[in-house]
């Protein structure tokens, strides 16, 4: 037998599923399937097959559908009927209730079942329904691997989405907290500004002079002064501009707002950075008496989290050379370095880069020319890492709240690199508090100075 096609059709001729087992054009197949309902309507005999000039239709009604086999005329009708019986058992076993929705949902499963029963070329397999069911339920290693990969991608995407949501919410909370803090500061400053209208003319003029000298280089610490009662006016109405005049009504309105919000006057806090002495500038090597002078500068930038773990560490360094003696300045510098830790070196454009990479020697491309007398950075290096071994020192802060409302903060500094001496090390404690609170236990040990 040779089965050209196996199909499942509705009573009105609508094709639900059709599977071809030989090479046949789409136009011919559609013509054969379209002609079947017309032939069935004109057939008066009680047979389950219809012969035409070219093909044979073997069919069987299943509820409101027709199960159809299109074979050639030389096919064995007994084998075709046996195949039809297996298909009639297979279709309900796969689809369950024979509705259009269930058939559409199980289309590919029906095609796989047809392929288990009929091979390529249209020949029937010697197989029963239980074997077909077993073959359809067999596991595929490639399919399981694909499903595992898809599941992993979905879990990673879900975890990343949750992390992004947490980060966005944290940023929103931080932004809202900053806006609230800025709003409270603005209200407090406005309240203090309107309240200055109660001061005497002498106090108002002195306040104006202090504001006019805002550009002074030496900052002064703010000391709040008690407000004085307004002196009775001895003169008549005065013409011209008057500082602080007409603010009594606005001040009373802001007094009411401050009373509702339970606000207090907040004195301006001077920045801790303004009280830090300027870093001593490295002496220029131009005035040196040595024929050739070298200077090394390194800057370490570290970002730590609350637990003290390193999130980002960046080291940038430069080697400066200055030649004071023209005869001795035409020289070479033999260096000892290692790039095993991921250090990236960059030489000056006038320095022989190939010689440095091959032999670790710094020399100008033109050996006849000396190094310039001014300080020139002939070599730079940089490294980005998260290794704590590169930390020169570490800071740990332990706040402890006591029962009397005070907070005791212990700060520990750990020196990690003992091979170098740390000089002029200072750390800044940004503490926003009232002036009447005591600042105790500011100690200096091991050459470390505290500023705060």
TrEMBL record:
Entry superkingdom: Eukaryota
Domain MHD: 289-452
UniProt keywords, alphabetically: Cytoplasm, Cytoplasmic vesicle, ER-Golgi transport, Golgi apparatus, Membrane, Protein transport, Transport
Bias kind Basic and acidic residues: ranges: 156-180
Ranges of biased composition (kind: Low complexity): 205-217
Subcellular location: Cytoplasm; Cytoplasmic vesicle, COPI-coated vesicle membrane; Golgi apparatus membrane
CDD domains reported for this sequence: AP_delta-COPI_MHD, Delta_COP_N
Name of a matching Pfam family: Adap_comp_sub
GO BP annotations listed: endoplasmic reticulum to Golgi vesicle-mediated transport; Golgi localization; protein transport; retrograde vesicle-mediated transport, Golgi to endoplasmic reticulum
Topology of the protein relative to the lipid bilayer: Peripheral membrane protein
InterPro entries documented for this protein: AP2_Mu_C_sf (IPR036168), Coatomer_dsu (IPR027059), Longin-like_dom_sf (IPR011012), MHD (IPR028565)
An annotated GO cellular component: Golgi membrane
Residues covered by region (Disordered): 156-182, 205-252
Subunit comment: Oligomeric complex that consists of at least the alpha, beta, beta', gamma, delta, epsilon and zeta subunits.
Family in the record: Belongs to the adaptor complexes medium subunit family. Delta-COP subfamily.
Role noted for this protein: The coatomer is a cytosolic protein complex that binds to dilysine motifs and reversibly associates with Golgi non-clathrin-coated vesicles, which further mediate biosynthetic protein transport from the ER, via the Golgi up to the trans Golgi network. Coatomer complex is required for budding from Golgi membranes, and is essential for the retrograde Golgi-to-ER transport of dilysine-tagged proteins.
Protein name: Coatomer subunit delta
Annotated organism of origin: Aphanomyces astaci (Crayfish plague agent)
Lineage: Eukaryota, Sar, Stramenopiles, Oomycota, Saprolegniomycetes
